[in-house]
Structures are given as C-alpha cells and as structure tokens.
Design brief:
- The chain is mainly α.
- The protein has a single domain, classed as Heme Oxygenase, Chain A.
- It is about 80% helix and about 0% strand.
- It is built from eleven helices and no strands.
- It is globular, with a radius of gyration of 17 Å.
Length: about 230
C-alpha cells in the first residue's frame, strides 16, 4: 500500500485532504521516533513519554468523539461516534494499563505527570472544535488521528524488526479491526462533506490540516521528551 492510495480508493473530501497533506504524512512516517520504533531501537524513556501523553490525549479524544456523537445528523452517526468514544476510553484503560505495567509506569506517576505543551494544545484544539464547530468540521478535525495512525501503523508493520519491544503497539494500529473503524470514519466524514457548503468544506480542510500538523508535533514532542520550559 502506498501513501498515495491509503486504505481504499477514497471519495472526494478525504482524497483531497489526504493529497493536500501528503507531505505531513511523509514527514511523520519517516520521523526519528517512528524509524526507531520500527527498528526496535526506540529508547524506553521516549516511549514512556509518548505513552503517558497518549493516555492523557485519549481521554480528550474520547470527549471530543462524544460531542461529535451528540452533533451527529442521523442515528447511525450518533451510534458510530458514541461507540468510538467508548472505545477510546477502553483503549486508554487497557492498552495503556498493559504498557504502563510493562514499562514500569505507576498510576501515581501517570497522575503526577502533566500534559506536555503539544498534548495540551492538541487536546484543547479537539475539545474546542468539538464544541464550537459544526458536525462536518468536527469530523475533519478528528479524522487525522484515526487515519494517520492507521497508515503509520501499517507502514511500520511492513518494515518492523521482529521481535520488537513495541510489538503490541504495532499490532494494535496495523490491525484490520482498527482499519475497519478508520474506513467508517472516512466514509462518515465524506458524507458530511457532500452535504456541506463550500465555506464549511474549507473549514473542514483547515481543521484536517491543523490536526495533521499536531500529529507530527505529538511524535516529535515524544522524541524530544519535551516538557514545559518554565
């Protein structure tokens, strides 16, 4: 699978959004964090930083998905995004609990670790978008987290050294179950875009682009183990 034809042949909004932000995806795919993760050489402290911040992020992501469900324009969307919100919290509790145990992160240490500047920015952006923007724009803001993770996970799977200390992470995001959920979110976003005005579609593209850049910043922050400078 190439980056130019992600997942399946995508309808118009998603195809435009993917192609318009392809350079960002390529930068994410080849950034030091993901290169080292695939090679199995990623330092444990960097991965710990990433997992702790990801656990914080997933709670905010789940809240934004819940608001998207409340704004859905049909019953199918309500069910889809309410279930996605539930899954985000379950993943945070199960996957991160397993990783926290494996990488010696205690619940107390997690609670004592604040969101990094990038995690705070990304979480705030999603929550603000969920509450302030119309349903199509909310979906566009949420889509990069689904789609980029799916593509990065599958790309890493194709080149990962095995066994790999991060096998569980790779298998989660490269798995077909996750990709099936991503295809459903893409389809919902395209349906919302088709019914939107040109002005709203432009806002969708801005939201998608901003979230894509924040995806890069999140991984870069983990690589640098970034914290508040003051």
């Amino acid at each position: 699978m190439t980056a130019a034809t992600p997942l399946d042949a995508a309808p118009r909004f998603s195809q435009e959004a993917w192609q318009g932000n392809l350079a960002v995806y390529e930068a994410i795919r080849t950034m030091p964090f993901n290169e080292a993760l695939a090679a199995g050489t990623l330092g444990v402290s960097r991965f710990r930083h990433y997992m702790v911040q990801d656990a914080h992020y997933l709670i905010a992501f789940g809240r934004a998905l819940a608001v998207a469900a409340a704004k859905a324009d049909d019953a199918d969307g309500l069910v889809q995004f309410a279930e996605a919100a539930k899954v985000a919290v379950i993943v945070e509790r199960s996957l991160h609990t397993d990783f926290f145990r494996s990488f010696d992160i205690s619940p107390a240490a997690f609670e004592a670790t604040a969101m990094s500047p990038v995690c705070h920015h990304y979480s705030s952006f999603l929550i603000a978008s969920a509450h302030a923007e119309p349903y199509p724009v909310v979906l566009a803001a949420l889509l990069p987290c689904f789609w980029i993770y799916a593509e990065v996970g599958r790309d890493i799977l194709g080149r990962a050294v095995r066994p790999n200390p991060y096998d569980a992470w790779i298998d989660t995001y490269a798995g077909e179950e996750f990709h099936e959920a991503v295809r459903a979110v893409i389809a919902a976003t395209d349906r919302a875009a088709e019914a939107s005005s040109p002005t709203v579609r432009a806002r969708m593209h801005r939201a998608y682009a901003h979230a894509s850049k924040l995806e890069w910043m999140f991984w870069d922050s983990a690589w640098r183990e970034a914290d508040w400078p003051i």
